[in-house]
Write a structure and sequence with these properties.
The structure is a single chain. With 88 residues, this protein is an alpha+beta fold. It has one domain. The strands form 2 sheets. A two-stranded antiparallel ribbon has the order 1-4. The protein has a two-stranded antiparallel ribbon with strand order 2-3. β2 and β3 form a beta hairpin. It is flat, with a radius of gyration of 15 Å.
Length: 88
């Protein structure tokens, strides 16, 4: 909308994911939107679906995803090129 000639890329994908997590964390924190309240809310993520990465679970150790997939931008959309890849 704001930059119609710019193709989505890994930076826009990362920004979208960060904004999605923050927005849901803030919603869950409710009126307790402090640093501590946001952290506590993010720690409630259990299998949270964003539609662009595997379901996210954030526990007290703040360890999150170690998996992903290869993708390419085609005609302004992300196209998944591989199955989910997992890192140990």
């Amino acid at each position: 909308k704001y930059f119609p000639k710019n193709e989505p890329n890994r930076y826009s994908l990362s920004g979208y994911l960060a904004a999605t997590l923050f927005t849901e964390g803030a919603r869950r924190a409710g009126r307790n939107l402090t640093r501590e309240g946001l952290i506590a809310a993010l720690e409630t993520f259990k299998g949270f679906e964003t539609g662009i990465v595997p379901p996210i679970t954030i526990g007290p150790d703040h360890d999150t995803q170690k998996q992903g997939f290869w993708l390419r931008v085609e005609r302004g959309h992300f196209k998944q090129l591989s199955d989910w890849l997992k890192s140990e």
